[in-house]
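Posting for a labmate who doesn't have an account.
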Amino acid sequence: MQSELILLSFDKIMQTRSYTVVILGSPEKRFAIYTDPSIGRTLQIYLTGAEKPRPLTHDLMSSIFLGLGVKLLQVVINDIQDTVYYARLFLEQNVGGLRHIVEVDARPSDCITLALLHNIPVYCTKEVLEKTIPIEE
């Protein structure tokens, strides 16, 4: 059964010493994904274009994708259990005239970082959006 996908926008990051909050939103609802503070620092580096002395993990992944001719298509946040979110990263590779689409299980925080880096859309399923706790200003 196909699930309806809802396009999300990246709203903001809030950082504390013990966690990072990534706020995502749709026209109907905004919600938070909590993650490790190091993810927030990495996101800030990419968002601000800060100078990096060495490539970060997401730079390495991007270089591997580029070298293999892999294009990032989209991210889908496809499940939430308790307060843990699950996501899938969709990749495309053309080999011998055939288009291969690969779906990879990944942490939403990594997917969001790659989505921002590669300017690809982030979606969530309608079911996930219905289960999220709304964030109010």
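Reply:
Got it, the structure tokens are right above this. The chain has a mean pLDDT of 92.
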